[in-house]
Write a structure and sequence with these properties.
2 copies of one chain form a homodimer.
Chain A lengths: L9 H8 L19 H15 L6 H7 L14 H13 L12 H18 L15 H14 L6 H32 L3 H15 L3 H4 L1 H8 L12 H26 L5
The first copy, chain A, binds a DNA duplex (30 and 30 nucleotides) through loops.
DNA sequence: GGGGGATACTTTACGGCATAAGGAGTTGTT
DNA sequence: AACAACTCCTTATGCCGTAAAGTATCCCCC
């Protein structure tokens, strides 16, 4: 059940992240390496995609490559650094170009949607700590893309920093919720609606005064479409996606007014 | 380095989360329990606060109470469920009442600030998975508070859901960044500015074409106040807090316009 | 007031983890 | 042919969560 958040030693991760094309191995003795950093990172991603971050062990990655765990240490300093590499590789899947013909708002929305679905493809990425960002090329590239996409809005630097951060957190946070709903459904074999129903029933039993204690929550939930039987696996995921779109729209509304009235930071 | 995200079995967690005041132990044989669920949860929080989530082991919690790891299993089903309890207990620190005299915007801002600092007190909470929320009393209470605080804005349910979620993600995400900067500084003994400087230098060496590859990023960063020597440990943390305030303000701007123009969802 | 049985807690053990240390096999250079 | 460099393996250490089984403590009831 343990998953994680640890960061690799950046002094070791960075050279691997920014390493150029592999040199053609001139004049080196010893057996030819059968593996490569790229292959190991790919195997790690495959394991994490398939089995989740909890199942990502050096043994598992090695096994997928027909090697022992220790063989990996020739290429990669340790598990934490491998994770840094996996993280950046996934972010590299994000597009870096966007059609800005329809204006910054449309471009930003499109980017956010793509990032959201990218995270859904690799949900484990959202569990990796953001502390002291590793600053791999893909991560910085993604930042640059966001800045480019927002460029037309004409935000001043301090405001821009806040907006970029908020946008990023919104995407990550919402994707995390959606992804984890998805993962949990797959792991436990219990569809969202069933899970929700079971939990509600239990809650009603344990806290019979629920409606009085949490009146606004009760009102809000009763206004929502109840999970119809057959909504099944995607129920919570869909609701999260909808909340994501709504929240994003509100944030961008705020950007528009903040631009129009540049006084308030 | 592994920390985690796993969720306890809700069917076990919920009764503990919602348990009423302890019954006065009528007619039970056996030795008096020297521990209690509350004491164990408190010890767990103490360990996590002091040493981080990575250091939270059943052995460590037991030791802090002068017991073995196995002694805890009398009170708590396992580590995952203990974490659920710790999580909810921390959220209970959030205030549930707010002065709404100055309007919803001021109240919301105040709440967000308090939540932010609460998370900073217990940074490990931000590493706990949000999948299939555990729905403890404090967590639901916090949701109710947010709804109450936003009540004056007059948002329709679908919009409200999006705003609440966005607000929550913003607080959590930003707090996470700030907290992890803080934790990393404490762990490694390297102040933020030093770390930042070292990383920048390394980056300049590994990617000499940085300024051409990431022009907007370069421009944005060069516009920022460089970490003056002596800014020290709080540099990244302060910058994150500032970005948090800015992002929050923009989001609330968006809420205001969305309310004024209820057409767009 | 002295068993009996429930309860709290300990000891021991198991399998899994990351990874340190050192050995075996392979390959290029001299 | 000898050597050095390199890849990869085996083994071992010390963590982890927790299952199983043993021991000590206390209350109830006879």
């Amino acid at each position: 059940m343990t998953v994680f958040a640890g960061q690799g030693d950046a002094r070791r991760s960075m050279p691997l992240l920014w390493r150029g094309p592999e040199e053609p191995r001139t004049g080196r003795s010893g057996p030819k390496p059968a593996l490569s950093v790229d292959a190991i990172v790919a195997a790690g991603i495959a394991v994490a995609d398939a089995e989740g971050l909890a199942a990502l062990s050096m043994r598992a990655v090695g096994e997928r490559l027909g090697r022992t765990a220790m063989a990996l240490y020739t290429y990669v300093p340790g598990k934490a650094e491998l994770l840094d590499l996996m993280h950046d590789r996934v972010l590299a899947e994000l597009p870096t170009d966007h059609d800005r013909a329809d204006g910054w708002r449309a471009a930003t929305t499109a980017w956010a949607e793509e990032a959201f679905t990218c995270y859904l493809r690799h949900p484990w990425v959202l569990q990796i700590s953001q502390a002291r960002p590793v600053m791999g090329p893909a991560e910085l590239g993604a930042m640059e893309t966001v800045l480019r996409v927002l460029d037309g809005a004409g935000l001043e630097p301090p405001l821009l920093r806040g907006v970029v951060a908020a946008l990023w957190q919104l995407v990550r946070g919402m994707a995390r919720t959606a992804a984890e709903a998805h993962v949990a459904a797959a792991d436990t074999g219990i569809a969202d609606d069933e899970w929700w129903y079971a939990r509600s029933a239990q809650l009603a039993e344990l806290a019979p005064d629920f409606a009085e204690r949490f009146p606004l929550l009760t009102a809000l939930e009763s206004g929502a479409a109840a999970p119809a039987p057959g909504d099944g696996a995607g129920y919570l995921e869909d609701r999260t996606r909808e909340a994501f779109r709504t929240g994003l729209a509100v944030l961008l509304d705020g950007v528009e007014t903040a631009v129009a009235r540049p006084g308030r930071s």
